[in-house]
Amino acid sequence: MKIGILSDIHGNLPALEAVLEDCERQGITTRFCLGDVVGYGASPNECCEMVRADCQATVMGNHDSALVGLTPMQFFNAYARSAIEWSAQIIEEGHLTWLRELPLTHAHGAAMFVHATPKNPGAWNYIHNPDEAAQHFDIMSPGRTAFIGHSHIPAYFMGHENRRIINVGAVGQPRDRNPQASYVVYDMDSGSFQWCRVNYDIQRAAQKIREVGLPEFLASRLFIGM
């Protein structure tokens, strides 16, 4: 069975719509979300509604955690804080409750889903390189694959006894200088995976950010994928 794994949607409705449409095109009806449904983008309610309806399970991201008051705002830069504060003013109560109750991890077969890191997932640390990845393999069972997001950069790290950490990239705010939305398709039978990149209406997403008065940088960065 093939599943779709999404992360870091960040309130970008056009990107989320495009990714889900791509999943449908490929016949992938089972999807998991690695968190950060909100933050940066201008459609937090619409993205929460769509993820709740279309993903079988979702884990909490650091922006989700900050929005519900579980992670202090001091850990975010000014752009992130402005988007979280704005989102907190308009988020619907039902979505707020849902975000607050999201788990930090979720398991499905040989796969582990977590936003940031397998070890201490609520510390919101990053995995950028093999040395950082190596710190997490010791808590993973042989043959287990951890799917992560958080850095917004697709990456693959291999440990001993076929332990793997795969960063699926970002749906709503890619940072690998490719503006296309990124997600992963994972074959649970073979263990193989592939990154999928999807074009979406960036102009529409950017215009919405500008309309609600969020910082221009949050709109302009979408066009260059950084």
The pLDDT mean sits at: 97
What strand order characterises the main sheet? 3-2-1-9-10
SS-based structural class? Answer: alpha/beta
**Could you give the count of β-strands?**
10
Helicity level, as a percent range?
25-40%
Which spans of ≥5 residues are poorly predicted at pLDDT below 50?
none
Q: Helix and strand string, N-terminal first?
A: EHEHEHHHEEHEEEEEHH
Count, helices: 8
> What's the CATH first level?
Alpha Beta
Description:
The protein is an alpha/beta fold and 226 residues long. The protein has one domain (2-223): 4-Layer Sandwich (Purple Acid Phosphatase, chain A, domain 2), CATH 3.60.21.10. The protein is built from 8 helices and 10 strands. The protein has helices at 13-25, 44-54, 62-67, 78-90, 93-100, 130-137, 202-211, 216-220, and strands spanning 2-6, 31-33, 57-58, 105-108, 111-114, 145-148, 155-158, 164-167, 181-187, 193-198. It has a 5-stranded mixed sheet with strand order 3-2-1-9-10. It has a 5-stranded mixed sheet with strand order 4-5-6-8-7, covered by helices on one side. Strand 5, helix 6 and strand 6 (145-148) form a beta-alpha-beta unit. Helix 1 (13-25) packs parallel to helix 2 (44-54).
